[in-house]
Structure to design on (229 residues):
């Protein structure tokens, strides 16, 4: 079945460092791909998404490109801030997100001043 | 953005008792809500899809008689864990599907259930 694998955390960075969180997927069809972020005490929020190969999702300085050839959707940010400290989840959906979401295990990011 | 609440945020109950968790969409109507379960350091696993006015659809391996779902209105879905056991201890998260703005799931903050 479909699955998502993302790098284990925690990831600890200094402010203004470059961030990469790896995510790879296995799917039978052509899924939509998502990154969600969960700040402490809050629900998951959609950070960005991509619906087809070579699409780039971007939001709040974060980017991820849908790479069909490597079945990957790595999250990147050029300069992280303390406020980016959170748990990041990679996910896929075979139905564009209006039905079942399959999540990776989550990666905790801690950014220090 | 759209807001989804869950109540309670934490609950401790004794083995054999039942616990009800509420999920509410506060500023939009949701014909579809989802219930997920998250084990420590693991991903969220979809338990069931809740549709307003109809029976929930459960994922394979989820006991529907143990995890009762009721979606009685367009803003409220409830999950009742019946005859709870320690292995039911987990983090339960709901989401509500907002369909007017492009089919996005909005998530509640989760409920930590501990069964003693």
């Amino acid at each position: 079945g479909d699955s998502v694998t993302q790098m284990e955390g925690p990831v600890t960075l200094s402010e203004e460092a470059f961030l990469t969180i790896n995510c790879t997927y296995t799917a039978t069809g052509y899924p939509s791909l998502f990154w969600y972020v969960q700040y402490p005490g809050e629900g998951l929020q959609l950070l960005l998404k991509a619906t087809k190969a070579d699409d780039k999702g971007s939001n709040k300085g974060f980017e991820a490109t849908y790479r069909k050839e490597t079945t990957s959707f790595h999250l990147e940010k050029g300069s992280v801030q303390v406020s980016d400290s959170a748990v990041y989840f990679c996910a896929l959906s075979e139905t564009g997100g209006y039905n079942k979401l399959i999540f990776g295990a989550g990666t905790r990011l801690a950014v220090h001043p | 953005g759209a807001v989804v609440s869950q109540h309670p945020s934490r609950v401790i109950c004794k083995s054999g008792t039942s616990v009800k968790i509420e999920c509410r969409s506060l500023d939009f109507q949701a014909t579809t809500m989802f219930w997920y379960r998250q084990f420590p350091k693991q991903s969220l696993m979809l338990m069931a899809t809740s549709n307003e006015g109809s029976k929930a659809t459960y994922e394979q391996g989820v006991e529907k008689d143990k995890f009762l779902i009721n979606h009685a209105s367009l803003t409220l879905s409830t999950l009742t864990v019946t005859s709870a056991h320690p292995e039911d201890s987990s983090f339960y998260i709901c989401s509500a599907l907002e369909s007017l703005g492009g089919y996005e799931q909005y998530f509640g903050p989760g409920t930590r259930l501990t069964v003693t």
